[in-house]
Amino acid sequence: MADDEFLANEILGYGAYLCFRPSGGGDVRGAGAGRVAALAERLGLRNEFEPGAPPPRDSFAFVRRVGAAPGQIADGDLAEAQGVIHVVSKGAEAVNEFCEQVSQWLAPVARVRVLRGVSRPRNYTGAAMNNWAYARQIVQQPGRAMPNAFLVPLSKTEDWWRKGWMERHTYFLPRYDDDGRMVNEGHALATEAGIAHLLRRTYRSEKQPAPAGEYDFVTYFECADDAVSIFHEVCAALRDVKRNPEWRFVREGPTWQGRRIATWEEIF
Asked: What is the pTM of this model?
């Protein structure tokens, strides 16, 4: 859209999820043993299992499979992934080298699906919304405190991308009729239950809409054991188009669930 020129578009960081599953009967564990952690250390990446305070901007993480639920977009490489490795950095070089090197090590013994994206400024967040949503949002906790991880990639439909940015903005807020009665909650209120319980991270495709075969957004969540039900509650609220009309324009990939772990070896 021509009017997207008014949106802040600078890149604040680069991230990727390497989703892998055994292929060919080789030793997947041995292919990465010692190598992945050593590579991360050389690149200056901190392990997110013990994030520290504040959490690092350059980091990596291991997640072990628990299960997966299908979405509208079929993606067997994600749905059947045995493990996921996350990497994020302010610079593209570290993320590129990490992805290329780990993919090369695993290629003989596993299928690797890399989901990439970038972080950009929040275009639709004013001061009040920032204070209501993001200032109250839980930050990353150690893996033992918030062990559950969910990876949920999605894309928006062509109809969504044909809308101007002002119209898109309206779907994130509640809508009211002429008498002041709330017609629907919109994205923000539909997700309110998760603000204090769910860590959320979103990477956007560097080009939007994304090229064929890629996702517009790769969203990721972490939570404690007693908040898993809240994650599913928030997802159900978002998917309810009467509460959140935005989801008429969303197509989800698989919802992949995992358990945060400290080392490569724990995946196996």
From this structure: 0.95
